[in-house]
């Protein structure tokens, strides 16, 4: 059943191109910056207390008096976990003894903050052991454990050291004892541990991990009253969320019955990722069918053209089919990262470019848009339309910021993006015994366990010639031809290859020294949304390669709302400009600017004056101050 | 300063046309239906307990045991007040001894529910006298008193009976004692009593009414901390609203400093109405300037093309300039009624058609859209776009219903619309010693105190010839030429009149027997919103006469979102169809239907297939079941 699997960390080394620049941004800016945040060392930024929470927990467990109680969000521990994971992947890509020492130190601290029974969570250790596992709805204990398991796996893969792995195996024992041996009811309010347990299982073969993951997936939503009963059994709660809002945390029905992607979008895609991974392990048709239905629900009816998901801030959630407002969208960076996870697991089951196309869409647009080009400011929310004066100001738009803040009290997205970028090779490539899969086009060197190794040379996403120089061949190379590439050709050693695709992949036999080149479509394309999407009717959006473009005020006389795109008008890619927005190819498109209309409503259509529209890649928006921005532009003949 | 004033109730009698049909709907359906609701006599409808609350209060005050405690919203008393007002106006228009007896009976009951000190409120009398005037933020005591004062005025004008007037003058004494003599701090959380006190003052000359109205207007927002202090001084509250959200209840600054229309839109326009009335009485320039600024803020930057106001359900409030989403709008029926009040008071100060144009826009579109054609179902929220599956379903659209429910627990809008329609002549006409003003075009007979009387004959809003047959002349007739009427002509006794307008009014000298005829523009017009309104870019809306049109699914193959309006395409008014939607003129417009696109996003623009679009007046939408509906239609060449 399992067609192929993710590449091991370290099997992909970026070269000097686009991906490399982002990995360097993560390594040089985000990881050190986030480390300082964990330690509360950034003046003027809200304190995170992440390390302080672990230190105080360690003191308490040693019988000393903590200096302070727990501080921060209940899931604050996961910030450290995600930082460890990102730093570990960075170590693989770029050895750094100082960083490794920092990792050793914080892992030692984590060990000291672990209770003798393996329990690990600073909030519940500092706030009273009697509350453990009593608020699965909001407590995030299992969520934090899950992230720490992922960190343990990455640190082990980076260094061969099992220090964190041992801590987390004891934690697995603790959780296993509670939920399996002692048969405690319930399942995590925020899915995450399921995919993490499966990751540990893949790495270590620990059967308890598999059993626990299956357990949490199988019992979820079976007792739809569980959270209500749980809430009634205690006289406290973390936030007082409604325990009856089952859709929010995907506890409204058993997972195998799910057909529509609903609720908190990060919770949703984390759960679906684990479901797909489990289906891949067990080959269970019913679970796989649910995964396919949920995938279709997202990408066919509930996803933005930028790969953003979550149409509303209310519950940071999916809403209903075709409801995709561009201005009030939530579109959390983490949700698009989770969508990449889900896509990656679906690809393992079924190497079909439809999964990789979405993974690429989410990565190059929403995930990268979450990060300022300086690596020090971040969006949680990724709108497709921003209007100064409305965005961040109107009651309905308070979540929709127009410039990236430096950090958040709830800091999930920045470290999540960091770990994703440092481990992008795991998503870009896959392998099985016979074949190496190239799902994403990323320049650099790939060394697979099946023996295949090659160098990928390209200026992608700004260049559309992609050359694979096979160092060690003898296996099949499966090259995804992106769905957006209307025309393409491929050559091996200068000879054209037949255009036979299997589910969007070109399967090429390789030998040592082969040179395989793809020529993808470099045209500027327009996308049209289905008329069912009320927000986009009459408008088009611009895409070139995998990049969705947008219009920003700073390039367009300040006023994007007055611009119209000329239907079938000329569109030109300007030369690559290394000095603009860390290096982009801007586009020029024929369009119109609507003459100013002072009246709110007028019975005379303002003159549509021909002009050139200047578009930049969406991921690079909001790097030049407050700006109008639009992805969907009304078309005019 | 005071240029003209509203017509007395009863000075306008509708004929047999459009207004008459609505007045008959109110008289035959709404008033009896609402009366039964007050008495909890409608099976299957949520009980209102309005009369029951008064009965129980009366029992308590007699020293008997109430059968039940207070039930309903804290402002439930105002439902009875608005019904009395509507029924009284109806009595003026159409004498009805049975209805008058019902009025006498409920007024007797109100008297029995009044405390010996003049205090009148069933919630606070049943829930403990010690709470009186302690929660001005949410308690609505002064709001309910205000509505009852308006009812008292109307009942007196209808019958000459001062029974309710006496009750309310005692209530004025009670409020005066508390706020003026005893110098209690504070002002009403929901403005209403200010305009009501001024109405009583105009009727009776009671100086206490003027003084109290001035007091409440003058102290409002001076102590911006008042509600916080009030909340801190008690250990209970009605709903627990945030006392610091000053904009919500317009307590964020002194009224004379206000420039932007903010907060709860009904509260806002009720306050502005009283401010304009007071400015008109006192001639105070500063207050008048604030009124003008607030007017401009609404109509130039924060009003929908339907005359709806309140861009968000969050606080049922204004948001920011040019933020006018068509689907998530609140657009409460009551807010547009309040906007008509405000317009009417501004017209008294300054007979300029810009006020009357807005009054007409609000009336013929949002106010009438609030009422099902059967008179038994009502919208609070009046969206400009409705999409089954999204409207009423998505978390952001739960308020935006797609069919009118029969009644609401919070039943403010239906009786508010009823009283407005029955007293429409007061808004349509004005007078001073020398001149009769026709602000709105309503068929029927007008008899002014200045001696002028005339008959207005027209099929407006579906016919654009308007004939005024002067019965008693000798005064000037000031006829508003609507701002939307690009071309027009006027004749007196068959002779063309010069097209000299003063602020949009044609001033015509009259003599007994004169016949003055207006020929207004019957063309089908397109309106374009300023590009600053993101939601409307690239779209047009259709208007004919004062009626905004919309496309509804039932007339257009079910799918309105796929329709485009042909730029400069032909548009045709079909013959008046008496059997359709209680009688309308449907429009046919050249347009396109976008070929179906199954993919969520496609890089091929769907074919735009020429077709005819079928438009109906917006006020008549949602009378034929669940339907897509749109006011703003994307244009295509």
Written overview of the protein:
Two copies of one chain form a homodimer. With 637 residues, chain A is an alpha+beta fold. Chain A is built from 16 helices and 23 strands. Among the domains of chain A are: 429-519, Maltose phosphorylase, domain 3 (Sandwich); 524-636, no CATH class. In chain A, the strands form three sheets. The first copy, chain A, has a seven-stranded antiparallel β-sheet with strand order 2-6-7-8-13-10-11. Chain A has a six-stranded mixed beta barrel with strand order 15-16-21-19-17-23. Chains A and B meet through helix 12, strand 14, strand 15, strand 20 and strand 23 of A and helix 12, strand 15, strand 16, strand 21 and strand 24 of B. Strand 20 of chain A pairs antiparallel with strand 15 of chain B, so a sheet runs across the interface.
Write out the strand line-up for the largest beta sheet of chain A, numbering strands in chain order.
Answer: 2-6-7-8-13-10-11
Low-confidence stretches of chain A: none
Could you estimate the helical fraction of the residues of chain A in percent? 25-40%
Measured between the Cα atoms of the first and last residue of chain A, the distance is 51 Å
Main β sheet profile of chain A: 7 strands, antiparallel
Radius of gyration of chain A: 24 Å
* Helix-and-strand structural type of chain A: alpha+beta
Strand content of chain A: 15-25%
What's the mean pLDDT score of chain A? Answer: 95
Topology of this protein?
2 copies of one chain form a homodimer.
Chain A: E1 5-6, E2 12-14, H1 18-38, H2 50-61, H3 77-93, H4 97-112, H5 122-126, H6 141-159, H7 163-181, H8 193-204, H9 207-219, H10 226-232, H11 265-282, H12 285-301, H13 333-349, H14 353-369, E3 385-386, H15 413-422, H16 424-428, E4 429-431, E5 435-438, E6 444-447, E7 453-458, E8 465-472, E9 476-480, E10 489-492, E11 495-496, E12 505-509, E13 515-519, E14 524-529, E15 539-544, E16 547-552, E17 563-566, E18 571-573, E19 587-594, E20 601-602, E21 608-617, E22 629-630, E23 633-636
Parallel strand pairs in A: 5-9, 17-23
Antiparallel strand pairs in A: 1-4, 2-6, 3-22, 4-5, 6-7, 7-8, 8-13, 9-12, 10-11, 10-13, 14-15, 15-16, 15-23, 16-21, 16-22, 17-19, 18-19, 19-21
Helix pairs in contact in A: 1-3, 1-15, 2-4, 3-6, 3-15, 6-7, 6-8, 7-9, 8-9, 8-11, 11-12, 11-13, 13-14
